[in-house]
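quick one before i forget lol
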Amino acid sequence: MSDVLDIVVRLLAIFVAFLVFPLVIGQTEHKVMAHMQGRLGPMYAGGFHGWAQLVADGVKFAQKEDIVPAGADRRVFQLAPAVALLPYLLVLAAIPLGPHTVGRDLDAGIFFVLAVMGVGVLGSIMAGWASANKFSLLGGLRTAAQLLAYELPMLLAAASVAMAAGTLSLPGILEGFHWWWVPWQIVGGVVFFVAGLAELQRPPFDMPVADSEIIFGAYTEYTGLRFALFLLAEYAGIVVLCALTSVLFLGGWHGPFGAAGLGWLWMVLKTVVLAFVVIWLRVTYPRLREDQLQKLAWTALIPLALAQIALTGVIKVVIS
């Protein structure tokens, strides 16, 4: 009975975190972008610091009509938002938030989370194909191209950490983590983070939703709550990416230089700081061209990830 209760509590905690954290990141993005760009509107909705902006957005989406194009593949069109969103819930269940705080400790946790995150991208591809719109189809094709280009450097960067820890388990990586890893794993961390941004189609890698070229890419024909689910999937992806980067390259729930006592609060703090960087990059850098996007992956990120693996192998041989 106690085992069943423990599983239920873990599932409820994961579900609550899945609902709360993406909304917090969405609200934070409104505020950070408003400050950085001098946009005062999001600062006034609801009074104190515009607390009701997110509520207003939710009401707006709920009131809009749910439209399915006449020529669309209805089943695929309606299923795509769920395919984009639900994989991040599964990934969150495998990420350790603190000591002995993980939904499920998997022996091959790294492979699981990266594989499931790749499934989430299929939601955009499905939406582009099913919409019966040439701009949506082009956005879906761009999504597929980015997935092929940026999944490889993410996997290689994560493999370097797995080599250093001697395990594919995410809690196992944190148990074996040492702060002296950070200086020689920092290149892999940057590669992982940048490739993750591209896979999430976040600026400056938002070519699949380039509104100045293809309206809004794969999401052009979506309205109402279905469109809101795609936005929620984007923010959920930010939470998952930042949490994974924290676990793999920044020690997760470990405090700096071995400091203890805060546990999961360290994990939350690192995730929030990385999410701020994601928002900062959106405001700061212009969108890349498609050729620049592909060139960055194949001529920069992949060679750097391979060099990181080689360095990790040399260090493991020297210290063993």
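fyi Residues 2-319 form one domain.
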